[in-house]
Amino acid sequence: MDHRTDRRSLLRLAGVGALGLAFPPLLSACGAGSSGDGVSNAGKDLAPWPTHVPFSGPTPDAPGDDSGVQPLFLNYPDEVVRSVHNPVGDGSDVTVVVVSYGAPPKPVEDNRYWQAVNAALGVNLKVTVVPDPEYGQKMATLMASGGDLPDMIMFTNLALPHAAEFVQARCADLSGFVGGDAVKEFPNLANIPTYAWKGMGRIGGKLHGIPLERPVPANSLFVNRTAMDAAGIPKDWTTEQYLDAMRELTGDRRWGVGWFKTLFGGLGGITYHAGSLGAPNTWSVDGDTFTSTLTTPQFEQALEVMRKLVEAGAHYPDSLTVSSTDMQSHFHNGTVASMNDGFGSVSLATLNKVDNRFALDLGRPYGPQATPWRGPGVFGHVTFKKADPARIRLLLRVCDYFSAPFGTAEHELANYGVEGEHFTKDAGGIRTTDLYGQENNSLLPTKYVGTAPAVLYLPGYPETAKAVHDWQKATLPRSVRNPATGLRSATEAGKGAQLSQIIGDGIAAITFGRKPPSAWKGVVAQWQQAGGDQVAEELAKEHAANQ
Fold first, then answer.
1. Do domains 71-216+378-455 and 218-373+457-486 have the same CATH topology?
2. Could you read off the pLDDT of 264-296 as tens digits, one per residue?
3. How far is residue 173's CA from residue 26's CA, in Å, rounded to a whole number?
4. In the 8-state DSSP scheme, what is residue 321?
5. Left if phi > 0, otherwise alpha if psi is -120 to 50, otherwise beta: which for 232?
6. Of 100, 324, 357, 474, whose CB is crowded by the most CB atoms within 10 A?
7. Domain 218-373+457-486 classified CATH 3.40.190.10?
8. What is the DSSP string of 64-113?
């Protein structure tokens, strides 16, 4: 069997996207220069972060905390409350561009969910859905055009070259509308935690978007707990116990480890191992000095663990070339016993695909001084085209509605649809119908226009919800954030392809035994000389400016 793969697959194996390295520039938007100095926050007057006013909602079965542990709900609230008390829209059209990871939505005239959302908002949402494989090129075309823009444009965390320059030149500055106490005009936006705003970051000192919040955990190790229990594998493990477990779970057409290409180039394998072994999250900062995690002995140890997994044959044979969808299917059906994936895959959709074949859980870090890596706290953000203040406020009210928190009528409509048509309620909570499978906020991705801070609620799977909550309590207090989150580096944006290739090729060569582990120091030196050191200097300036 041929296990060769292309360079992009190797880059994704290496997790270079997770290490803050960009892919090559597609355009120079709006005539912006390549330096990116205009979007830097250094030397600029900084808009204040929006004041955080938490929603006082239903009491959870177990609370969240400041480390990122989510509130746990084993049951749906008996009563929901309203969080939006005034009209949202004025009957006008609102044009929106969003990414999609599913099939196209049914047209509005045949889509009860779309109709209900329009009626609740008092607008006519005209949604352009861009399939994920086309997203980068479609956004490049949109940003390069000089024509009229949609009212709202959703940006994912994908590194689109010169997107910040485009947003600064063509999209509305929202600082005066949501900065500081101004956000209180939009209570559901005020409920968005500060870490999400910081994860989005400022552009030229200003706030140009509304963040789409995501829980704190970064890419996580999803595990088949049933198979692990049968093999006597403990939840808390050492490095050797982890390696032994992956070997033990391999055999009879089953593999311990499933690797695959993920959305932003971050396989997650290297980040899970680096965090387990105590490596800093992408960068460490001492004062205003940034040091890359690539230079640490803990990162080298993570490479060695991955190399041992390859030597043992514990990873799925076609793991470099298989699609993420296929690898997820292999995990759901038990072909692989563990898989790195984004924490957002802790979802009802995933559990329905597992279909009770096994108990789903998350694997804890295995090192004695683990530093589990946190994610940026956002999936992306929404920007608005420039308009008069009244129009901007209308668009903010639309985002505010979709950002309504768990336990509200607005959240219920946005996330589950119309009661009696898309879902019902019983003692077990929300029960979705067949119609929900055809009409929901993934097929019509309103969840990328606004989203509430996520709670841990998995209707029908209370034991999984409790297991994930226990994992969070055991893991997140030790977790560390990437100090570069929300900061900007012109070199990173301009030389991302070159830097990514150096790291991706180096990790792949060492992991698959084409070069010895001692070759890593040369890889890091090459990366530093090619621009890595310059990225560190630029991040330091940005960090100092954002204090």
1. yes
2. 333 346 889 999 999 999 999 998 899 999 999
3. 24
4. T
5. left
6. 100
7. yes
8. --TTSPPPB-SS--SS-B-S--S----S-EEEEEEEESSPPPPPGGG-HH
pLDDT tens digits, residue range 42-71? 889 999 999 999 999 999 999 999 999 999
Say what the alpha-carbon torsion angle 316, 322, 326, 329 is, to the nearest 10 degrees: 10
Residue type present at position 445? P
Residues 6+ apart with CB under 8 A from 497: 22, 23, 24
pTM of the model: 0.87
Helix (H) or strand (E) holding 284: strand 283-286
Domain segments of the chain: what residues?
71-216+378-455, 218-373+457-486, 489-547
Residue type, 9: S
Q: How far is CA 290 from CA 85, 281, 492, 526, in A?
A: 47, 12, 14, 18
- In CATH terms, the superfamily for domain 71-216+378-455 is Periplasmic binding protein-like II (3.40.190.10)
Picking from 135, 126, 133, the residue whose alpha carbon sits closest to that of residue 107 is 126
How distant, in Å, are the alpha carbons of 196, 429, 462, 490, 492 from that of 79?
A: 28, 11, 20, 50, 49
End-to-end CA distance of the chain: 53
The least confident of 24-38, 101-115, 205-219, 322-336 is: 24-38
Task: Please say if the pLDDT value at position 327 is more than 60.
Answer: yes
H-helix or E-strand spanning residue 416: helix 409-416
As given in the structure block, the two tokens for residue 5 are 């793969």
Single-letter residue type at 178:
V
Q: Which residues contact 240 (CB under 8 A, 6 or more apart)?
A: none
Q: Can you tell me the distance from the alpha carbon of 21 to that of 28, in angstroms, rounded to the nearest whole number? A: 18
**365 Cβ neighbours under 8 A, 6+ residues apart:** 272, 275, 276, 372, 475, 478
Residue 276: which region, alpha, beta or left (left: phi > 0; alpha: psi -120 to 50)?
alpha
Residue 42, C-beta contacts closer than 8 angstroms, at least 6 positions apart: 541, 542, 544, 545
Q: Which residues pair with 221 in a beta bridge?
A: 340
Q: Name the token pair of 522.
A: 């040369």
Q: At what angle do helices 112-121 and 409-416 cross, to 10 degrees?
A: 150
Please give the structure tokens belonging to residue 360.
């789903």
